[in-house]
Amino acid sequence: MKVEILGSASPDDGGQFLISYLCNDQVAIDAGCLGLLTPVSRQLAVNHVFLSHSHIDHTGSLPIFLDNIFAPGPDCVQIHGIPDTLDSVRGDLFNDRLWPDFVRLSQPTNRFLELLPLEVERPVVADGLTVLPVELRHVVPTVGFIVSDANATVAFVSDTLPSDRIWELLRAVKNLKAVFLEASFPNSMDWLAEASAHLTPRTFASELKKLNREVDVIAVHLKPRYRQTLIQELTELKLPRVSVGEIGRVYHF
Length: 253
Known about the structure:
Layout lengths: L1 E4 L15 E3 L3 E3 L10 H5 L3 E3 L5 H4 L2 H8 L7 E5 L1 H11 L8 H4 L7 E5 L6 E3 L2 E7 L7 E6 L4 E5 L7 H7 L4 E7 L7 H7 L4 H11 L4 E5 L6 H10 L5 E3 L5 E3 L1
Parallel strand pairs: 3-4, 4-5, 5-6, 10-11, 11-12, 12-13
Antiparallel strand pairs: 1-2, 1-14, 2-3, 7-8, 8-9, 9-10
Helix pairs in contact: 6-8
């Protein structure tokens, strides 16, 4: 399996302003910057988008992405999300005010998208990958994703407060290769991390103790203004096999 952290700025300075990951070129996790991916032919290769939650840094470029890839015909990209997320997509994005209602405009012979509700802890198969949504703790209903193929499993754990269920499930995964785990705010801003339901390096480390095994851990969702402080605090933890996510890098597992 390969996973790419998509960039959202040009030239790129390493900051993750908007959130999107691409698995095997065809399955996207979140759509914060998916619609900015170039060349557009890369967007055309995406068949499935899995949305973790409704916040704009994870959904913001979804309308642009769908506009970029649309072609008349019955085939379309599938958008997967828990019901609360899909309700927000319909009511807050495709409402004919912020953006044309692509759901209403989709007809059986000419479709912009298909919205498919996810059920927590019920796996979905998409282009050779099995995607398991797992409930996290955020200010809106949110899921993380455990993504597997025949050879490897990786997990995307963002956005969240400290949680338990996803680590319980990951402890049982035999071929777990990597975890993409958020570290949004520095330790000095733990008050804001708590209020906005995110992790700091301190709680990042506490979460990894729940995994109780060593795998590659990639720190993501670092708030750009505090990126250097976050990198320093993560480095000082001296956690084995932890690195900071590199924008544009393709990770192979």
